[in-house]
Amino acid sequence: MTTPQRNLDEFISNLTREEDDLKQQLQYLKSKGKKRKRIVDEWFDKLQNMKQRCIYMKNSLNESGRPNFNVQGEIRDLIKGMQNHKKCKPMVLSNEFVGKKFEGNVKKMWKLLRDDQVFIIGIYGMGGVGKTFLATYIQCEIIRSKIFEDVLRVTVSHDFNIFKLQQQIAEKIKVNLCKSDNETSRAIILESELEKRKNTVIILDDIWEYVDLEKVGIPLGVGVKGIKVIMTSRLRHVCQQMKCLSDNRIEVGAFNADDEYGEAWELFWLGLQNFGTRPKLSPEVRNIAKCVVSKCDGLPLAISVMARIMIGNTSIHEWKYVLDEFDEWLMKAEMKKEVITVLRRSYDNLAEKKVKKCFLYSALLPKSFVREDLIMMLVDMGLLNGRRSLKKIFNKGNNIVKKLINHSLLLEHNSTLRMQGLVKKMAWNILKESDANTMLKCNEYMKSISELEWPTDLETVSLANNTIEEIPYGTSFNCPRLSTLLLFDNSIGHIPEDFFTYMNALKTLGLSEKHNLTSLPRSLSNVRSLTSLMLYECSELNDIPPLGELQSLLRLQISGCSIEALPEGLENLINLKWLDLSNNVNLELVPGSFLSSLTNIQYLNLWLCSGGIEVEDVEKG
Questions:
Q1: Most confidently modeled of 382-391, 400-409, 602-611?
Q2: Rounded CA separation 524/541 (Å)
Q3: What is the pTM of this model?
Q4: For domain 341-422, which CATH number applies: 1.10.10, 3.10.450, 3.30.1560, 1.10.3470?
């Protein structure tokens, strides 16, 4: 037999194995009443086409009896094509598992499971994203594929203790621990039994604190053959403490909520189906349903629960009601029990009261923000000592931010932070329950600020991320106790002169991302209690009133605006610690104009400003 014929025989044999393996998996799916993804059929068809080409080529060789150069080249191309095709093989076949991220996580999981140098694999992420779902899928696949001899799964949860965990594992492997109260002797028995089994995967689900696997009796390491642990946790730092290396961790996240026809909608649409039968929704209802899904902000648990609740509903009035009352409805019945309660466990797990408060107040910020904004907000709210140096403030603030990230309450991407939409709504609800003097109206479709009632005892107001276009002339709310007013990310084009008249206790004012705002009222000059004024990305703002009377100001941010000159009286703000004048491309600074009198400045940002400010000017200040 010639070499090309042998190559073809071997190649056909490989293709047949792949074909048989996929058929076996599809048969398993069918036996479970599951449907396969469309991409599986496409991949399978291409595999069979390759096999037919090989068979045809082999028959041609047998007839001619002599291979030629072109045939050998075609065989090489086929082999290369098959190698590339195998790389694209779907890891997840059933259409009930949605998302490219899920497919990628499964692929990484199998790679780690097959690596002899990996002993513990971590799955982490916020509540409701599908960590247990991924672990369950892997458990089923291990059982189906028989790559490991056994897979054990134990839920650890909040009430964890070593004795209880030892008992759960012993029951799974049917080992008698002799009812000993001695954890050490129980660990020795478990370790001995697990080492006998070998090739075993132990899934520890829902871990909330460090678990000493050695004390439990789970043997891991180079000297132990075939024992691996998969752990799931919301707490990234717990994965680190349990010696799960960063390369061996899988972060599970929410779907991209901004993709209208993306994976979030796919999961919702799948949940609305009745045993594979698609619901008959009118185009109007479908559009409303997409808005409902977008309010879940990509959280798989919320999307699945919402789909289950709405299955069978085709009335446009029912869908409109759910959309209109989503925030209130979220705190009732199934959604509160199955979603908000799950999310709140991460908040309840925070040990320090101050960190809890910091989390709640971080929910007042825009959709995405930088660490500096959050840390200075905590100073504004009195949660960090503003009298300390900025260096010490930021050391403490970064420590708090790290704790919130580790608890999956804040999400970090590159240099920005954000809070998942439903986590933010949970935080608002806790804030409103604990402080009746707080008004939170965010992500709503209000056009005018006059739609709201402003009680005289208000202390904190956040109207961030709305569609407010106007504050009507003559508007002046009587709020003598109001200390924080945040109007981030609206379309306000004008603020009336009298608006701040009865806000004599105002300390923090956030007017950032007002792209239609051209000027600020002169009455702002009289709000002498202000300690923090944020004017960020007000791209059309070119008129700022004198600020010289605002001598309580500690932070002043005028960034990304259209000002051509500094506000009058800036040199009088002798208590300023933080001054940000960055990205004002029309602003020309004059040497010696203001810095020499600002002797308390600890942070100064003049990026993209023009003019003649020299290092000496900064040093003199």
A1: 400-409
A2: 15
A3: 0.84
A4: 1.10.10
